[in-house]
Description:
Elements: H1 2-8, H2 12-34, H3 41-62, H4 67-90
Amino acid sequence: MALYGLGAGWSADETRGTLSAYFFVLGLVAVPSLGWPSVPGPVLIAMAVAAVAGDVLGRLLSRRVGTRVVRRSVLTLTAAGGALTLAHAVW
């Protein structure tokens, strides 16, 4: 999605909104497909709190961070995620 947004010339606001919706729907599909995660309740609560805190922090920072920084950050995180996925598949 990040690479598609880059190719389509999306602004930071368009990228943010699209990726938020995409990952929300992906999460909704993953739980029924893969089953509920078998982690302790406190860990799930910590994850939910971290997700909300990240959303709030992201909204606050979005007014102060330029488009170029957002684009580089998204592409860097995308590349890191791809590299980790590949490394996990190989090992």
